[in-house]
Amino acid sequence: MNALIKKEIRLILPAWIAAMLLVILPIWIIPPNLDSYHIYTLALGFLFLGLASFGQEFSFRTFSLSLSQPISRRHFWLVKITTLIVAIMLILFAMLILAEIRYDFYHRSFFVPPLGPVIVTLLIASVACSGGLWTTLLLRQVTGAFWFALLVPMIILTLFVGLSEHFQFADTTEEILGLVVFTIYSIAGFFWARHLFLNAQDTQWTGGEISFQWRKRISERANVSSRPRHWFSALVRKEIQSQQINLLIAAVVLALHLAAQITLKLHPGFENPNIHGMLEMTWGLWLLMPLLIGSSAVAEERRLGIIELQLCLPVSRRMQLFIKFSAALILSLILGGVMPILIESPKDFVTTFTHFDYWIFAVATSVFFISFYASTLARTTLQAIGLAIVVTVAIYFYEAASAIAIVRFGHGYTAEQFGIQILKIYLGLPILLLTFGWLTFRNFKWLHENWKLWRRNIIVVLAAFATIFILSNAIYLRAWEFLTPADKPHGLARLSESDRQNC
Hints:
By secondary structure, this protein is mainly α. It is built from 20 helices and no strands.
């Protein structure tokens, strides 16, 4: 195999694995009546794949070396795009096979994919990948490219929805126009990315260093003052400054969320329920903020090469990690939990925190914690996002898959099996929390990510899962011995249908 092709495969392989998990797993996990949620994971997976092609080059600072090779840029572009297309087709093929298995499982018949969903899937893949290509080449920064590639199609969709409702297009006309608009966007993004690559320079001016005006005024006042700044406030300000790109993107998400709310207020009834549902789900963009904040916390410092200097500061590493974790967690809870509540129910803000389900804060905290742990294992933000997806899938299948199986197929489980699975969940969560917390601190002190670091994490995580399995079975079997025969239930098969659903 050509060395250039091998290099491209190694570049996109982590993102391809993450995209594969995001695309095919929800097909089986999400119930059949929630198929619309596959669209979001589908777009996110292909977006990661589109960003990885050039994003990894910029993150590893090998883009200039690639341009200096004795190979024409057109050939270099052809190899990259061909590798990307093959990766996309493999994901779509796996998606089709899994959809066939899932359909046969529920309906006991052969699955013939309708033409409409096939076109929508191909369109989402082309929009996400082309957006990832041109934004990465334009900005040369993965975090900014991720948000621009995600938000630009949503802004186009919002404007298109407003125009279609204003002119009252028919359903068929609206679908055809939407298909044409996003097809043009995909083609234009592809050729714009090709133009940017063929005319790319070693370095590119991007408008200078991004810095808030209030941050500049604080620095000026600090320089004028003769009193030295306390190390704690200096570290906190450094962490906030490192998240400035995410704060700028949060302002864009805020504008898009407000635009969606205004559109729903002006046009409360949409003829197309899918568009109405997508506008109502705009708040879900805020849940991506904990993912980006946690993934960039440590990985970006490794990429920029400043983590070595930070660990040499006269501050304990525990305190540095505590400040970094706390500052990023507070930003994640504000942007991932408070902001959507404020916008979705501004009149009931006081009663929101007393009656609102706190699941959104639990989700934001879980996403941030996993992404922060993944950031301590990675060198770039994109790698951290992929690792966070892999870790989430592993935890889900070990801790939650058995519980979901009980809900769907509870009539086939005995009471003993049901009790062991529930005990695994309650016993496994604190063990995994302590395990990932300890590994996060150990990884933070490690200067460079390498195979030794990965091997230690894999061994410890597998040992934690084995410990959960052994302890849960031992504790349950020991408790089972103290029950009398009259107290032992004979299985879930004798429960009523309502009792099984409650279980």
